[in-house]
């Protein structure tokens, strides 16, 4: 009101304050957008269930956004690929071979392959398994790909 009444020296201060507020708003929005991109990447890396150590550092709104993204992605994957759907999270990188050699890092129990064969995954055991079947376990830290 004083600037409108004739104190023109305050106009520069008002403009400066407004520019500072706009800059802070842009920085906050960029930070929040970056967090959402990282949360989206967590869905592709860890699957539909996040470890508690990661979920502990997320706000309630971020957990809700993660759950909505997870449901939206699951709905889309069911809609493509016929009856069973298409799991887009399986092959993050194009495979060089269909079977890979893996080492079990911790006891997991029995693991069934599509042909009906069951494999007992015990700590330090090595197996030759289909890549697409064990890629999720590699990301979870149960198996290690032996090069």
From TrEMBL:
Single GO cellular component annotation? GINS complex
Q: Where is the GINS subunit domain?
A: 12-80
Going by the UniProt record, its keywords in alphabetical order are: DNA replication, Nucleus
CDD domains according to UniProt: GINS_A_psf1, GINS_B_Psf1
Does Nucleus show up as a keyword for this record? yes
GO terms classed as biological process: DNA strand elongation involved in mitotic DNA replication
One Pfam match:
Sld5
Q: Describe the location of the DNA replication complex GINS protein PSF1 C-terminal domain by residue ranges.
A: 96-146
Chief location category: nucleus
- SUPFAM superfamilies in the cross-refs: GINS helical bundle-like
UniProt-annotated location(s):
Nucleus
Q: Which family does it belong to?
A: Belongs to the GINS1/PSF1 family.
Question: Which PANTHER family does the annotation name?
Answer: DNA REPLICATION COMPLEX GINS PROTEIN PSF1 (PTHR12914:SF2), PARTNER OF SLD5 (PTHR12914)
Q: What does this protein do?
A: Required for correct functioning of the GINS complex, a complex that plays an essential role in the initiation of DNA replication, and progression of DNA replication forks. GINS complex seems to bind preferentially to single-stranded DNA.
Q: How does it assemble?
A: Component of the GINS complex.
Write down what this protein is called.
DNA replication complex GINS protein PSF1
Which gene name belongs to this protein? Gins1
